Amino acid sequence: MMAPLFSSKLLIVLLFGTLFGLILGVLPGLGPTTGGALILPFTMTLDPLSAIVLLTSIYCAGTYGGAITAVLINTPGTPAAAATCLDGYPLAQKGEAGRALGMATVSSTVGGIFSVIVLVFFAPVLAKLAYEFGQPEYFALAIFGLTMLASIGEGSPIKNLIAGAFGILISTIGKDFMTSIDRFTYGINELSVGIGFIPVVVGLFAISEMLTQSTLLDQVFKRVALKAVKLPSLDDYKKTWKTILRSSGIGSFIGVLPAEGGTVASLIGYSEAKRFSKEPEEFGKGSIEGIAGAEAANNAATGGAMVPTLALGIPGSATTAVILTGLIIHGVRPGPDLFREQPDFLYGIFGAMLIANILFFIFGFFGAKLFARITLVPNKILWPMIFAVSVCGTYSLSQSIIDVWIMLFFGVLGFFMRRYGFSVVPVIIGLILGELVEGTLRQSLVIFDGNWLMFLTRPIALTFFILSLIALAFPLLRSKKQKN
Amino acid sequence: MNNVQNKKRANKSLPFFFKDEFKVFFVIIFFSTILLISTFTFDKVPPILNRGIQPATFPKGLLVLIMFLTTIIYYLSFKNPWKKEKKLPKPFFLTILSFILFVVISKSLDFFLAISVLSIFVSYNWGERRVFYLLLVGIIFPLVVFIFFEMILGLRFPPGIITNLYYY
Fold this sequence. Notes:
The complex is a heterodimer. By secondary structure, chain A is an all-alpha fold.
């Protein structure tokens, strides 16, 4: 499994990816999604395996890195670390920042490794199942993915659905892939090839975050001092091992579902840790179980989210959407054939994720103090620099200035979307699934001779449609239950 | 309790078209309508070549879905009004202005110059006054990025008054 990784080049890529991911995770507002999108142009100089190893190591380390900021400055470095703030910061305020970070590091590593095992065993099974899928099944699956995203993603499900539909709408810009008829191009030649994924991702994540930061200039962060990261004591292990295992399972499962990956997983992992705890009253005041529950879950979601990405070509989170783009750019087509034709490539990815989890444990344990200092870089210096990299990175993929303007447009749009409670993640997933949704729908209708009811005669497709309906009904039932 | 009541009263006193809920509803419906109208101008595939649905049908369906869902969230906002957002501060508008400056300068003068101007403009307006740091973000760092992309990725940046000095 590890054989392809025993080359100095891949190990250097892994080391760089893990370090870069940690830095991205530590910096509030950045994260593995933005970082992955920014580094995507650079991966063009690498072979496909090195490129994907780089992106996956950024994903694993970036997800963990958010915990350092969450514990020390009460600001999640990544959205997935939001639940870690709840107990990490209070514990740090009690003078136990080292203990809090130690638990975050251990539970993240266990969660991450657990999810890689899930990935190794579950992805091939799912890929085999996908051989049974035809166009109608893929259409139903994509719809299920989008409804799940709307249902269990952050914020209002209806707003998430609007954002997802908007993402699919963006994918229709340009020449229709079946008939070559121009759609929404308005005579602009550059638009006939469609809107690229990178300008949209960088705009929605990096540029919109830059605008958000411009509204928070008067915010002062109080950083808690950190002497050294401490490994959890035997008592802490006894108290948390069940929580870590439970959250690892929850995170892996949530990761497999096409939703917001780590963010949702950590919130569920945290609330389940509280539900099963003998000391639920300690949650929010510095509970070590709270940190373990949230961190094991968000890192477990990384491997989980890679399952549908590799087996079906359907991203399980925003960052895996970037990884999926990386795969496509490098000519690797995810899906069942990938498992049959390029097993070495896949084992390389699995092995890289496993090593990345061990590497961030080492870096996190010995270097958290150093990484925490990165948060001292003032925004007035950091963000203009990020802007320069964003602009050059976006321009570099197709060497088009229009792409840079599209990035700015989506930056402004993303800011207002977030301001009014629309998550930007469904836009990204919608954009990447758009062609699949439309293509499979239209091809299915050709197969069915235009009869929509024929979808119901396909058992797998019907199952996905029923699951989609359940996913849509779930928020209604949840709010009713909450009212009661 | 009093604060909540005052806030509710303050929200009620606003005419509906000043409320965030209506603004968002209006913007989405307005642009969706324009896009929906434009789908009627798409070319049609002759019936003999048409397989499945027309190219305009799918985007039409999406736009109708977006408009329908937007109407639902607006309707729901009568029962549960949205949280009132804070007023946007001056640096936000200056950052937007810097984006406009970037577009104008990159189109008319130079791509690299546009990055430099934006970086210095943003950094200054966000409170940086030290000349060294302004030069760092405005000249040194963009130059490093420019050379890095040029040499590592073999990228050719668009011509302009400064970029031409490098290439010729």
